[in-house]
Amino acid sequence: MTPEQQLLETWRQLSQTLQQEVLDFAQFLAERRNPEPAQSQSPTQPSSLGDRLQTIRDQIVESGMPLLTREEVEQEVRDRRGGYQE
Known about the structure:
Layout lengths: L2 H10 L3 H18 L14 H16 L6 H11 L6
């Protein structure tokens, strides 16, 4: 089985969300290898990652779950880093 066939077979077994992540990663690798000029993407036009993050945020807000404050985010980062503080 070729690497392409292995990749496709594995990809088909993933959820739609994970399939999108694999696609995003492959596009990232392709762009990193052949970067486009910096002016090609408008600053007002969000990236696909930005679109996905905004969608996730919108879903959280719609669910009624409160968003973390800046301090809460910083505390969570510290906790995940074993209490590391700058």
